[in-house]
Amino acid sequence: MVQLTINNIKVNAEKxxxxxxxxxxxxxxxPTLCHLKDLLPSGACRICSVEVEGYRGLTPSCAFPVxxxxxxxxNSARVRRARKTIVELLIENHPQDCLxxxxxxxxxxxxxxxxYSVREHRFVGEKKDHAIDISSSxxxxxxxxxxxxxxCVRICHEVQKIGAIDFTKRGFYSTVTTPFNKGxxxxxxxxxxxxxxxxxxxxxxxxxxxxxVVSALNDKNKFTVVQVAxxxxxxxxxxxxxxxxxxxxxxxxxxxxxxxxxxxxDTNFAADLTIIEEATELIDRVSNNGKLPMFTSCxxxxxxxxEQNRPQLLEHVSSCKSPHEMEGAxxxxxxxKKMGLNPKDIFVVxxxxxxxxxxxxxxxxxxxxxxHDVDAVLTTRxxxxxxxxxxxxxxDLPEDKFDNPLGESTGAAAxxxxxxxxxxxxxxxxxxxxxxxxxxxxxFEAVRGSNGLKEATVKAGETELNIAVVNGIGNAKKVLDEIxxxxxxxxxxxxxxxxxxxxxxxxxxxxxxxxxxxxxxxALYHIDANMKKRNSHENESVKVLYKEFLVEPNSPTxxxxxxxxxxxxxxxxxx
Amino acid sequence: MHTYIFDNYEAKDRSALIxxxxxxxxxxxxxxxxxxxxxxxxxxxxxxxxxxVATFYNQFRLKPLGENVIKVCRGTACHVKSSANxxxxxxxxxxxxxxxxxxxxxxxxxxxxxxxxxxxAPVITINEDYYGRIAAKDIPKIIKNFTRKSVKQETVPAxxxxxx
Amino acid sequence: MNSxxxxxxxxxxxxxxxxxxxxxxxxxxxPLCHQNEKCKEKYTKLGNQLRYSExxxxxxxxxxxxxxxxxxxLKVEEAIRSELAKLNLTAKIEATGCIGYCAKExxxxxxxPGGTRISYCEITPKxxxxxxxxxxxxxGIFTEKVLGAHExxxxxxxxxxxxPFFKHQMKIVLExxxxxxxxxxxxxxxxxxxxxxxxxxxxxxxxxxxKEISASxxxxxxxxxxxxxxxxxxxxxxxxxxxxxxxxxxxxxxGAFMDRSVLESDPFRVVEGMMIGGYAIGATLGYIYCRAEYxxxxxxxxxxxxxxRKYGLLGDNILNSNFSFDLKIKKGAGAFVCGEETxxxxxxxGKRGMPRPRPPFPTDAGLFGKPTVINNVxxxxxxxxxxxxxxxxxxxxxxxxxxxxxxxxxxxxIVNSGLVEVPMGTKLSEVVFKIAGGIPDNKKxxxxxxxxxxxxxxxxxxxxxxxxxxSLKDVGAMMGSGGFVVMDxxxxxxxxxxxxxxxxxxESCGKCVPCREGTxxxxxxxxxxxxxxKSTTNKIDQLQRFKGIIHLKRLSSVIKDTxxxxxxxxxxxxxxxxxxxxxGEYEEHLYDRKCSAGVCKDLLTYSIDNTLCEGCGVCxxxxxxxxxxxxxxxxxxxxDEKCIRCGMCIDACRFDAIMVN
Lengths: 575, 164, 661
What we know:
heterotrimer, A: Ubiquitin-like (UB roll), Alpha-Beta Plaits, Rossmann fold, 3 domains, 5-stranded mixed beta sheet, 4-stranded parallel beta sheet, 19 helices, 19 strands, about 35% helix, B: about 160 residues, 6 helices, elongated
């Protein structure tokens, strides 16, 4: 322990703590911009500068460790003047088009400007000038709005370990961009959108699909339906200032109905379906000497990653479509037939926590004769914007239930939205399939939590399954290397691109509250725990679907409708 | 055709990045895209980072050079001896700006910070040769010398010396 | 014996693989392991030859540093060779480095057998025949271009060290520069090289070396002046499997070329300093980070390192002492900010040269996360002399807080540009008016710019300031790495501020906001000062000019206060020192719309005196922007709104008819 003085307050702090942390522990707020929790400080933005006695200049509190007897002033006139000037400098090299900006009212630069009462343009001059990169189907890059804090770069390189964008050039002309300043679509980017979550401004943002959805809803000839991913219901409330981890399923359903969707379905239905297909595929691979380990395929970022980086391992990926694509496929076949609809008239909208899902829904492999399984994907954030435009007061909404038959789901499906969830759900069903009875305890603690790599061994009758859960794409390299070396001991591996899983997906509400991952995870486990049915194989609607249409898991029909294949994108990108 | 340079380095040695870029530029006079991709794979650094490094340092070019490279020293000593006028005269003569290459690919004009020949300021170098204590009015003559190949370089009055 | 690596007889066995701890001592007084008069003679003779005191044919020394080469040294050498061949004379040509008198290059020394070494300056290929005739054929003096003699002589040639340029200097770092052949390790050894290294290996442990350097009071010559001994001590204390030593030879200040000169002229001295430093901190590997723009320096360093390895002075178990140390050269790729320690480390690691916050300091976690010491070329160049002559000797030179000497690169509007080394405490006026010979063409002195982009411009009234770290800081400049640019009345101080800010702007790494954005805005404010109303159509722009000035000071102080590294922290210095000493000039630009120095083009008006103009049309054709109109045979006229004030017409006019106001 060390003792220091901050603003005349005696503070006991742990050794190794930064001034920023020590100040926070006694309720002193210091603004930050380039700071990212759990990553090494970069010291770039200087907004967290404080005065430390004995030092000539100001000191960046995010990077400076406390020491005994240190005297710190975080709120002197000198410090305030420095911070305000820095904000002014940032603003002067920014388009200042807040009124028409997607991050209006949720922008850290705007907040800083407000906090430091910037009231005039003191340093007018040249502004950086960049074209907006709209090349990808999921994201937009607008370097003119970039404040070069480097958070996106660090997330991309240090956490996700993709490294699609980096600082280029230098000085005033520094830009965060792709190699050769080309489009994101031809870069190493997997469109996970983690960079969007950490961007303080709108320099990185999703590509909005609202227009397409609105025009489909306005089209009298379209039968426009919507489905909601498991992770959305645990986060959307945050946009309305509800506590982290509030389950707002019922309000979302009602809200969507009021937006004019003909039917409101649950992606969780297809999650259960996915489990049946995937567990069957796994058992088949294990018992018939198929390619092992098998990877989950629900996460489109992960699929894009392996296609781009390790196409030689694609056979390890389950051929199952991701749940919302399965839902779309079932809607345009079984449901259309059942309801007497022309599949071409059905417009399927997915509400997803994810940016890559937009890319996924555009994949040619996920379309039958140009008819895509899913027609448009909205992120959680876009849905909130839609609610606002439509004048829907979310807080006052009564709850409603999903439509059937594609609205029924089990607890196993609910946890799809968190890292380890798909694995847990699959294990419950695989165990049942192998042994004929359900697991004694359905809670599978070993695969829960936010560790980067979680492992377990499950005994199901005669079969022993070694499983692994990769949480965050940055942790995938190790298991992939093992497979390439032939030393992998696993049978089944779940990979989710975003740290924490879909609850922390690139389409989720943007804020930097550190406890968000744990609280959102807990919400999903809570939904699961409170369900009467917690195993996918117990979903009655799914059973009916097999009986009436798919015959049995992994049947030829199931393969045609619910499975897909992958591309060697490395080859495509290299040319 | 450049992969032989990898023989001198250890794979995945990140500190080899800049020397590798220097070697590649030594071969091509600039950094071709494909070479950067090869380097990225060899040292196991994302291409974006390789590109970031290549655009950070003054030495690296991403476009091919002209036949003759003119460097105008903009060091302090040269500046107080009016090197800005020299630069202007060359820009005017070649009709390009600093950092650009003429359309016929004959000349590339670059600015250098200080080539350390302050005692004969203002200085420019063309390829390996130094031209010191020059005035703006000498420029057309010097440049003409390179556009007409038959003329021997010795006839240029302002040329001082050479590194090679 | 032709070199010290040749064995005097079979008793001697030193090689890099079978090292002998007596090797260096042997070179000066050998052989030590056996008594043999013949062997002793061999050693003595080799030493004399290498010290140029014993030779049968004339020796011709040609200064071949970059400055000499740029001035045409190769052509002179060629001319001398062909002249010798023509006259059927034999002489040995030794390429040396730079003696510092760059303005007088090409410098050639002649030493006849048994004679005195005499330096001649400004030798051109044209003057070579006469030069050879006078000096070698007639064995006399080439009086037109004699610079001075190296020793006292009967020939009436004054001593070189009595020349005003050299008289006030004190050479420690530059001791051998321009005197010895920088490519020969034998020459270096014969001139006392590696004795200091030998001394520490046989007599001192690492901590004693650190203490000796601390006691000498040596401070970093790269600019900031951190005590070298302190830095070494911090690294010495660290326990790690690897430690690194880095020599910062990324001399980036415009107007500074000290390091280049030392590396070209006496590279062994730098390497010996590094070997001592490596021993003192316990490093296993050293890096020399040298600008790629210095090809000759890199070539010489490579040669130096190879020779040291060959002689067993670098590598494993050096001189059988169990100390192992090697050196690598890293070519900098051109970024001024890499002079900053953490940026330089990043660059060696293969990253963008961007500084990172300290702590941790490099002495704790530097290159590849290991304890690392970074010193500059000049710092390392002092080390061997301190060890050899003792800390007391060194600390007796200089002022109370700044010990030793400082090398400056003199350039700009002075008579003698070149490289000089003066003891700390020397007055600035002495350097400008005595050593540099004052201002040419009867112009008036205006300022001297010290410390490059981080330094400041000092006017006449503070010319009594002493050269030392603290005094220079007190008057608003800083020691910097040693650029010393003199400016006369034709230099505009607003333009100089603009120049340095442009430099800083283009060299800012772009990481931290105050430097990236702040220096850009400062530059824009300064750029607006000399803009004329004519060229700014926008009224807001005119308003911005005054508004900018109001905020300039505040902006400067924030940049100084908050920038991440030294580059940003010192970026406002040229402007602040300008405002402090040359406020009048700023005001003149702002209010009177005038630039007395005639530099700020926007404030100048070009016109043609119609009484002098003959209407020849030359200016009209020369004008690149068609700003001159007129008919042949009639006086021409300049269109002010088109004129870009490039001055081409002035150069072209034969009648002096073009006026500038």
